[in-house]
Amino acid sequence: MVINTNLGAMVSQRNLAESTNNLQRSLSRLATGSKIVQPQDDAAGLAMAARLDARLKRIDATKNSLANAVSFVQTKDGYLGKIQAALERMSELATLAMDGTKSSTDVDLYGKEYDTLRSFIQDASGIAAKKFNGVSLFSATATTVYGDEDGTEAITLSATNITAAGGSVVAADLTASSGQWTAAGVVDRAKVLTSLNQVTTSLNKVTAQRADLGSDLSRLNIATDTLSILKENVSSATSRIRDVDVADESASYARYSILVQAGTAMLAQANVIPQTALRLLT
Fold first, then answer.
1. 91 plus 218 within the same structural domain
2. Is residue 86 domain-shared with residue 184, that is, in the same domain?
3. Which residue, 159, 169, 182, 194, has most beta carbons within 10 Å?
4. How many CB atoms lie within 10 A of CB 5?
5. Which 8-state DSSP code applies to residue 160?
6. Which among 256, 262, 257, 267 is positioned nearest to 10, based on CA atoms?
7. Helix, strand or coil for residue 169?
8. What would the DSSP string read from start to end of 14-53?
9. Torsion, Cα of 146, 149, 150, 151 (10° steps)
10. pLDDT recorded at residue 176
11. Do strands 131-132 and 135-136 pair parallel, antiparallel, or not at all (unpaired)?
12. Contact criterion met (CB below 8 Å) for 140 and 164
C-alpha cells in the first residue's frame, strides 16, 4: 500500500481522457455532419474529398459553359429562322409575280417587298453582324466548347456564314433585282423565275444550316445530361468519404458518454483508495 503513486488513479485518468476525446470527436461529427472534422481524423480521405470537391466545381463550370453554348446556338437559330421566314415570303412573292394575270404594276409591288426582304437578309450591318456576348454569331470560324470537366472532349459547333461564298446564304444567290422583273411595262417572267430559283437555293441552304444547328443542340444536351449523371456519382463518392452516418455516430456518442461517466466515477474511487493507508497510521 503506497501513498505517493496511485497507479489505479493514473490508469483511470488515462482511460477517462481517452473516452473524453472520443466523446468530443463524436460530438463534433454530429454537430458538423462530417466524419472528417480535423485532418488527423482521415488524412487520406480528406485529400481525396478535396480532389473530388475540385472536380465537382469543374463539372459545374463545364455545365455552365454548355448552357452558354446552348444559348449561343439557339440565338443563331432564331436569327436563321427569321431569314428562313423572309426567304419563304420572297419565294411566295416570286411565285405571285409569275402569274400571267398580274399586271406589271402588281409585279412592281411584289418586287418592292421582295427587294426589302432581300436587303434585310444581305445587309452586312444587320443579322450578319450580330454577336453573342461579343462573339460573332455568323462567321466562317467554328466555335469549340468542351463536354467534360477536363477539357479533353471537344465539341465543335457548326460554323454559320451567311454572307461569304460557301455560306448558308451566299450573297451571289440573290443577285437578280426585282426591279429587273419589269421593263417598259412588260413583265420579264424569265427573270422572275431566276429570282425564284435563287431564293429556293438560299432557302435550301438555310434549312440545311438549321438542321446542323439542331444536331449541335442535341450534342450539347447529351453532354449536359452526361455531366449531370457524373456529378451525381462524384457527389455520392464524396458523401461516402466525408458525411457522417448519424445513426452509427449516435450510438458511438451514447457509448462514449457512458464511458466518460463511468470513468469519472472510477477516478473518484481510485483517488479514495490511498486514504485507507491512514488507518494504519492511527
1. yes
2. yes
3. 169
4. 9
5. B
6. 267
7. coil
8. HHHHHHHHHHHHHHHHHHHSBS-SSGGG-HHHHHHHHHHH
9. 10
10. 57
11. antiparallel
12. yes
- What is the model's pLDDT at position 154? 93
Is 205 within 8 Å of 121 (Cβ atoms)?
no
For 202, the domain range is 44-242
**Cell numbers standing for residue 189:** 417572267
Q: Are residues 71 and 12 in the same domain?
A: no
Instruction: Give pTM, 2 decimals.
Output: 0.78
Is 222 inside any structural domain? yes
How many structural domains comprise the chain?
2
> Is the domain of 124 the same as that of 149?
yes
Domain containing 158 — which CATH number?
A: 1.20.1330.10
Q: Is residue 260 domain-shared with residue 233, that is, in the same domain?
A: no
Residue type, 34: S
Give me the tens of pLDDT residue by residue for the chain, a chain 282 residues long: 677 777 888 888 888 899 898 898 888 888 888 888 888 888 888 899 999 999 999 999 999 999 999 999 999 999 999 989 999 999 999 999 888 888 888 988 898 898 888 888 877 777 888 889 989 888 888 899 999 988 889 999 988 877 654 455 555 566 656 567 888 788 888 888 888 888 888 888 888 889 999 999 999 999 999 999 999 999 999 999 888 888 988 998 899 899 899 988 888 888 887 777 777 776
Identity of the residue numbered 214: G
Give phi and psi for 135, each to the nearest 5: -100, 130
Alpha-carbon distance of 154 to 151, in angstroms, equals 7
Measured distance CA(281)–CA(3) in Å, rounded: 12
Question: In terms of domains, do 50 and 76 share one?
Answer: yes
**Residue 150 burial class via C-beta count within 10 angstroms: exposed 0-12, middle 13-18, buried 19 and up:** exposed
